[in-house]
Amino acid sequence: MLRVGVMVSGGGTNLQAILDAVEEGRITNVEIEVVISNNPGAYALERAKNHGIEAVCMSPKDYETRDDFNRAFLEKVDEYHLDLIVLAGFLVKIPEAMVEKYEHRIINIHPSLIPSFCGVGYYGLKVHEAALARGVKVTGATVHYVDGGMDTGPIILQKAVEVQENDTPELLQRRVMEQAEWVILPKAIDMIANGMV
Ligand code: GRF
Description:
The two termini are 16 Å apart. This protein has one domain (2-193): Formyl transferase, N-terminal domain (Rossmann fold). The protein has six helices and seven strands. It has a seven-stranded mixed β-sheet with strand order 3-2-1-4-5-6-7, with helices on one face. By secondary structure, the protein is α/β, with parallel strands linked by helices. It binds 5-O-phosphono-beta-D-ribofuranosylamine. 5-O-phosphono-beta-D-ribofuranosylamine binds at residues 8, 10-15, 44, 88-89, 109, 111, 124, 173, 177, 181. The site of 5-O-phosphono-beta-D-ribofuranosylamine (GRF) has 16 residues, from helix 1 and helix 6.
């Protein structure tokens, strides 16, 4: 049974997709041990509580220095003896010590086809604004391992999504979430839990 922790910062629709997939048997051999957010207002924390999953909030803002937060964050995560950490819309940079300690055990969902529209400054709606500004006809989402860089680790799964006429960033984001993110993130977790990656 793979012990999984999910890190969130926002609405938690990717978390919800994971919870639904576990409930419907599309993810097997997984136990979601904890949901951690840096944002006390993240609805993702409500989603966790509604599922009886421990919801923890800790933010760099609560610490004197980033180093203090990084140490406390790693200590907290270690408490759950996780086999896999899933970054589902998590907007805090993962401390280097955590990347090293959990090497090949942290995955991230990014709302574009990496290597397009990724790296520093590309998150949330900004990704879709850049895709529309470039005029790409196809975009999508990527699940990848987290390494020391930003959106640079080995790619696990990708799924393409068509850009449509008159798309706004919001419309495109929604389509990428519905048609790609909420499909490949649960699938990647199930593949890892069942030794298929
Ligand atoms: C969204 O921008 C999504 O594309 C990205 O993280 C953000 C928050 O998603 N992966 P969620 O609803 O909190 O899962």
